[in-house]
Design a protein that fits this description.
The chain is built from 3 helices and 5 strands; from the N terminus they run αββααβββ. It is of the alpha+beta class and 148 residues long. The protein has a single domain, classed as Roll (SH3 type barrels). The longest helix has 14 residues.
Length: 148
Amino acid sequence: MSIEPTPGQPAGAVPGADAFLQFLVNLVNNGSQIESIGVTLQMGGMLVSGSIISGAEYFDSFAVKFTSSLETLDADTRKTVHASLAELGDVFRLPQPVDPLPNYIHLADALFFTADGTPIAGQPTLWRGRTSAVDGFILGRLQSETAG
């Protein structure tokens, strides 16, 4: 893995995803001893702060939260929807290759902030985004002053 700019990339071209960030995502996706990494992502003038989780954990959690909101559906239908959503995480249950690096990053307990650090109202949530859309990142999470 190289964390250098892409060879042959024209000067002034917008770079793709940060290979170092993708490497960190891959560490978590591989289910090693690292289950999550706290990060704050700078994306288009906004900050997204949370913990990197594996794609498998993201889809499992998403399936639970989504199907719990389907109160009007019968239990069998909710169970089928849950299984279908959780199945999307199956690819992450296998060892992840070093190449290609992951195109998506998954966060748990994501909070959103303006560029100056002002919290945007909302509860911590699951979040998924393209690694190529991240402008920069720091290790560690921002906390809302009202967060516990």
